[in-house]
Amino acid sequence: MSPSNVSKAKSNELNYQIAHFLSKEHFEQLQKLMNDHYLTKGSHLFWEGEPAEQLYYVKKGKIKITKSTDDGKDLILFYLQEGDFFGEFASSGTCQYSYDAKAVQNSETAVIQQKDLERLISEDGAFALQFIKWMSLMQRTTESKFRDLILYGKKGALSSTLIRLTNSYGEPTEDGIFIRLKLSNTDLANMIGTSRESVNRMLAAYKSEGVIDYDKGHIVIRDLAHLKSVVRCPDCPPEICRI
């Protein structure tokens, strides 16, 4: 990806956020339902299995979404950043969170009560339509991510994750695309559902082939085209191909 293409991707990366889908008036209506909530690094917003009575908007910081597997491992589903809106969107009845939400760094979120959002949706058809369009995009994002994880094996899952990282956290440099989000090999393993040893081997192979490099512990993508070839990348827009 050329610097100009990366810049374009970065300019489009906010297109998935709820504020992009709502009119200014409707986003202000949503903001009126928000109450600020501050988190220190390492603290949880909620745990899997708790009643899902609130929704959350990230104002500052980063939130990690994980799900426990049957063998006790934590699979990283998403890294959420400023502007992301998340929770269990239940239209009625009792619902539980199906994942954990934990602050990766000191963060500021806003809490919205599920019942308040439901009332706004029921009272304002235009808001409801915009919200449904945003939810549809979130569904497409999730489906595309798990498609890559399932169809192309461990190497494809890692390649897909690296591609998504370039869209969400990539900065063009003379040496390649610098990934701003610093991740350990264990983090990457938990993102694709494999062992750290497998990730170690795959990254070492990619480094020897000149596909990636490192800069002070951060991954630098040197050959994005190669990663795309592994997963037969359809060049989805950045708002879908995100981490």
Structure description:
- The chain is α+β, with helices and mostly antiparallel strands and 243 residues long.
- Helix content is 43%, strand content 23%.
- The chain has nine helices and twelve strands.
- The protein has helices at 3-12, 18-21, 24-32, 114-123, 125-151, 153-169, 185-192, 196-208, 224-230; strands at residues 35-39, 44-46, 54-60, 63-68, 74-80, 85-86, 100-103, 107-113, 170-173, 176-179, 212-215, 218-221.
- A four-stranded antiparallel β-sheet has the order 1-8-3-6.
- A hairpin with a 2-residue loop joins strand 9 and strand 10.
- It is globular.
- The chain starts with a helix and ends in a 13-residue tail after the last helix.
- Residues 1-13 have low confidence and may be disordered.
Structure at a glance:
This protein has 243 residues and is of the alpha+beta class. It has 9 helices and 12 strands. Strand 11 (212-215) and strand 12 form a beta hairpin.
- Main sheet specs: 4 strands, antiparallel
> Could you give the order of the helices and strands?
HHHEEEEEEEEHHHEEHHEEH
Number of helices: 9
The rounded distance between the terminal residues' Cα atoms is 17 Å
Segments where pLDDT lies below 50 for 5+ residues? 1-13
Structural class: alpha+beta
Number of strands: 12
Mean model confidence by pLDDT: 90
Shape: globular
Which percent band covers the strand fraction? 15-25%
* Percent range of helical residues: 40-55%
Radius of gyration: 18 Å
- Strand arrangement in the largest pleated sheet: 1-8-3-6
